[in-house]
Amino acid sequence: MKLFVNSAFEINDNTEAYFFGNYAQRTVQGGFFFRNPTNRGGVYRGPLVNPTTGLPSDADDAVASVRVGDLDGLGQGGNCISGIPLENGVPNPAFLAQVVADANCFSFLETIPLGFVPRFGGENEDVSFTFGVRGLLDVGTGLDYDFSVQRGSNRSDFAISNTVNASLGPDTPRNFTPGGQEQTETLVNASFVYNVDVGFESDLSVAFGAEYRKEEFDLFAGDPASYALGPLADQGFSSSSNGFGGFPADTSASQDSNAIYVDLEADVSENLTLQTAVRYEDFSQFGDTTDFKLAGIYHVSDSVRIRSAYSTGFHAPTAGQANITNVTTQNVNGVLIDQGTLPLFSSAGQLAADFIELDGNGRPTLGPEEAENFSIGAAFDLGDTSWTIDYYTIELTDRVAAIEDLLPNLRANVSWAHSQGDYNTLVRANYYGGWDDTGNGVNGISSAVLVDVSVSYQLNENTRLVAGIDNVFDTYPDKNPSAGSLGQLYSEASPFGFNGGTWYLQARYTY
Ligand SMILES: [Ca+2]
Ligand SMILES: [Ca+2]
Asked: 35 C-alpha to center of ligand 1: Å?
């Protein structure tokens, strides 16, 4: 469901107030990749065992097994084998029958013999509104102003079904509400535009302004079973809802920043338009950053234009990336360990930074990610046809850790567009530099070039028909070396997907 409001009313001839807002709500659900039921770690996959006793073994004849839990505790009450031996991937029927018959011994083959594919989804709610006043002040040649306040929030409440908290054994629920998260942003803006005659071909347009931005991030705790460390945790059964563990506690984080900017643009001569901009921004936690942009278009002749732009940019870690604490207890090789994410600014985070520095790996810092963008292109007319060619590169340094590690550090794109009469054609080559799949621990995935082509035809005044192929040469990323156990042939984080080429037909109707 989506609702929009967009309104403005005149206060006087030179002043207008405006308001716009939106509300959207949707429910999302998706599945996980299928995995072989007998090798899902922490649920089914057991230790290597002696095929005739079902007890742990590191001998040459040891075989894989399906994990068995001892419900009244190890070393007290009844005893159980450690794993049901697998023979050609099939659980040994005699051992399986023995585990089923013994009420104190438990394997997930008793309750969910065919394995399970979790369904993950949630409710998403998005609300935002903007209120502002804009107008013209009678100063010199006239000063345009625009003051506004904007607030937006996006909340997701997650749900995961058809899964287990394996450490709860036979008592596990199958459906969980692992909690939620909300990002809220508040922006206060003041912007101005003033035109000055400095003797150029056109007036010099001077835009300047200031912005205050506050970002808040909240995590909401899940239901207790979604993060519980159940009684079988010390026997190798994983804790928390499998597939997406619940958040154990409510957590909040926030940061704010102040920015000022100036942007100048003018037709310097009949043939040359130049733009330059500078922006300074000060973050409550990352110090400050100054970025600039320089861009121009030069008309070589009536039919040939050259354009180029260079800019620096930044991407500050979000309040969530910088501040969030999300710790769950896991059983790792028989030892209970608190695992999760801690803010680098916390005392625990600084202690970890000390260790990393002592190891000679340099002290980790979290600051704005910096980018340099460069583009150059030409547009020209030949007879009845017009042509453009553009090249751009984006180079990033100081990647914000985690998700962004997955992105290639260099992307480039060359496109060739051609229009003649009612036809437009486009050929585009996209270059993705090498990247690391940190989620699966696979580094050094190869760079790739993908080529897209499309043709469109203006059928009549309102209708345009488009046919195209994205990824004409059906390029795929490198295969995931651990595809077998994860059920993922390719990394799901591939910057250009893993679906190969696609073709499409479109009809666009404008009215
Ligand atoms: Ca026991
Ligand atoms: Ca049993």
From this structure: 30
* Adjacent-strand bridge partners of 389: 378, 416
Query: Does the residue 3 lie in any domain?
Result: no
Ligand 1 centre and the CA of 151: distance in Å? 57
**111, 140, 175 - which closes a domain:** 111
Q: What is the pLDDT of residue 382?
A: 79
292 bridge partner residues: 278
Output the CA 78–ligand 1 centroid distance in Å. Answer: 4
- Three-state DSSP class for 228? coil
Per-residue pLDDT of 315-326, as tens digits, reads 777 766 666 656
**Tokens standing for residue 492:** 């799901």
Q: Single out the residue in 81, 111, 141 at which a domain terminates.
A: 111
Cα 62 to middle of ligand 1, angstroms: 23
Q: Which ligand is nearest to the CA of 103?
A: 2
Rg (CA), the chain: 30
pLDDT tens by residue, 345-384: 566 666 666 766 666 666 666 666 788 889 998 988 877 7
Structurally, how many domains does the chain consist of?
2
**Residue 68 resides in a domain:** yes
Three-class secondary structure assignment of 349-403: HHHHHHHHHHCCCCCCCCCCEEEEEEEEEEEEEECCEEEEEEEEEEEEECCCCHH
For ligand 1, the distance from its centroid to the CA atom of residue 104, given in whole angstroms, is: 7
451 occurs within a structural domain:
yes
Considering the entire predicted model, what is its pTM? 0.66
Taking the centre of ligand 1 as the mean of its atom positions, its distance from the CA of residue 69, in whole angstroms, is: 9
Domain boundaries, position 418:
368-511
Measure 261 CA to ligand 2 centroid, in angstroms: 69
Task: Give the Å distance between the CA of 49 and the centre of ligand 2.
Answer: 19
What pLDDT, on the 0 to 100 scale, is given for residue 483?
56
Ligand nearest to the CA of 109: 2
CA of 107 to the centre of ligand 2 (A): 7
Residue 210 forms part of a structural domain: no
Q: For the chain, which ranges sit under pLDDT 70? A: 31-38, 319-353, 355-368, 397-409, 438-441, 481-488, 492
d(CA 466, ligand 1 centre) in Å: 68
Check if the beta carbon of residue 402 is closer than 8 Å to that of residue 414: no
Ligand 2 centroid – CA 73 distance (Å) = 14
Question: Which DSSP helix (H) or strand (E) runs through 320?
Answer: helix 319-323
Report the distance separating Cα 479 and Cα 485, nearest Å: 13
Which is nearest to 244 in space by CA: 349, 124, 332, 328?
328
Instruction: Give the Å distance between the CA of 80 and the centre of ligand 1.
Output: 7
